[in-house]
Amino acid sequence: MTASQNWPECRNTPRDVQTRLLLINPRFPESFWSFRWAIDSVLPNKRTVNPPLGLATVAALSPADWQIEIIDENIESIPLKPAADIIGVCGMGVQFRRQKELLSYYRGLGYYVVAGGSYASLCPERYDTLADTVVAGEAEYIWKEFCRDYEAGNPRGLYQEKGVVSLEDSPTPRFDLLKLSRYTNISLQFSRGCPFRCEFCDIIVMFGRKPRTKSCEQVGRELDALRALGAHNVFFVDDNFIGDKNIAKKLLRHLADYQRENDYQFQFGTEASLNLAQDEELLTLLPEANFAWVFIGIESPDEESLKETKKFQNTREDILTSVRQIYAHGLDIFAGFIIGFDNDTLSTFDRQYRFIVDSGIQVAMVGLLTALPKTPLYERLEAEGRLLPGADGTDNTSVGTNFVPKQIEYDTLVREYKRLYQRLLQPSAIAARIQNKMRYMRNPHHQPLYPMRTLLGIMAKFAWRGVLKGGPRRMLQFARTLATARLPQIPLVFSDWIAALSMKEFAERHLLIRKHNAQTATAAHIDKLRNSFRSYVQQGRVRIQMEQGNISLRLQGFVDSAFYRKASRAIHDLLDNTTSTVTLHVEDFHEEQRQHWNRLLHRLRRDGDRIYVSASEKLKDLLEVDSSVFHLVLEPAA
Ligand code: SF4
Fold first, then answer.
1. What are 254-273's pLDDT values in tens digits?
2. What's the CA gap between 240 and 333, in Å, rounded?
3. Which of 368, 378, 445 has the alpha carbon at shortest distance from 408?
4. Beta bridge partners of 233
5. In terms of Cα–Cα distance, which of 412, 432, 498, 420 is closest to 40?
6. I want to staple 207 with a disulfide (CB 3.0 to 4.6 A). Which of 45, 159, 193, 509 is the partner?
7. Which atom of ligand 1 is nearest to the CA of 239?
8. How far apart are CA 369 and CA 589, in angstroms?
9. Is 297 in the pocket of ligand 1 (CB under 6 A)?
């Protein structure tokens, strides 16, 4: 059913080879962060944004004679029967659902499964029955301990790091095991931890408030490894790159030298706190080391909300002044915003909108406040009895939250949230932001790293698929931004439009479905489907059902090419006009249908994140389903 055929099934058979470790990064639910439209429609040969750096580090911590493979389900299909002894599955909170499915599936087949990643570190107790071993916390010491115990034949159920890990003990990640060319950025880590104490933050729960860093030489070695592999765009995935400003400055000087010696091969980006704006030296050193952008948690332009959440570092000066100060050094800003603080009211939406437009921040990731387990926010809301039952806060990409908001009614909060994005993603708001940014960023440091030919291809695809297809309003606004930009600003104008249209496309497919009454729309589409496929239904070859907002098409007898042709149109129509998902249950399949099946999936790729595919056990080896595109339903073995 997947690309698993190249893995011989030799598990549990006697052999003389080393331990075989398969590490899997489960598929993320699609979100604004996916930039899916840019990746599918504009950028060449990319599949997702960042590689699983944690797995490359775990691979480097494993014994040298182990055979290791990394599968990232965000770029490739998972193998159904891998030749592996141990299968390690990592995951953040948003990946928990898929991580659980993968662990149960492989464990059911008899593999030794290990759970790890940030969510297992935060809530190891949630994995008690899911994995043979849970690795909770930073891996540097405990993963080695697990490997030793595994080889000795007595691994424990839980390895939990309770002490402090020195990052100087962290090895150069096995970048060579990642398919780097398929990512837009390559991740690197310099520090862990952050000195601040934002109430909602799980980072400080996991990594503490005293930043720990790698040495400059270590970072240099990691860059050497990436240089050898031809990487260019590097994202320092630190919790807060400037958590310890003095050490950050030391690294930046080292990086500036490194870049000079190596023809500025890398363009960097990172995450930092807003107090960056008040440090002139840091603002000068970052572009000198070829940093082009920083992600900043701005959260709210409302000082009372910031104080409520203990984000005092954002209250030191007017935020708009801080943003412009950073722009003045040629650094672009991506930013996170949150709505749903107790202090927030309906007027907060307007305030956020005004601020985002005035500040010119194009990659503005607005989320509803969510209480992540173990955070001070979670504990406070729990004590106040405001946590919603069953909402565990793991999926912070869905529209909603897991507690009762104080001053805004829940449904209003969700409705206004959608409306905020609808306004932000209007062509005029996109253009206004670009112009507001360019007014203060005279010389952006951002430079495209593609060769000229590729760049022209990107621009042509963007012009056709992004600008012309958007109609006269979009064309006009795009022209307006180009006409007012100076030559060095042009690449950033393009890249802001590409980012904005990616976010718009996501919002239109997931947030802003046109039908107001989704349930009525889904019921109407069910009737339409039953009519279109009446003869197949009457003959018992196809069954169409609706189950909790999901439409299931059960293929239980032979269906011909006409069915497959109609099915792709009908499913597109349904997904475009409802909030429903679709499950294709395949219970009957013949070799001669393969071509039609493959063509159907090819046509449905664009909506893959809303399509589930399930097949009976005997058909799994026959069907090809790319689990990085569609939700491949994995039933645990009986
Ligand atoms: S600044 Fe960022 S990393 Fe630091 S505590 Fe606040 S949210 Fe967490």
1. 999 999 999 999 999 999 99
2. 14
3. 368
4. 267
5. 498
6. 193
7. 3
8. 46
9. yes
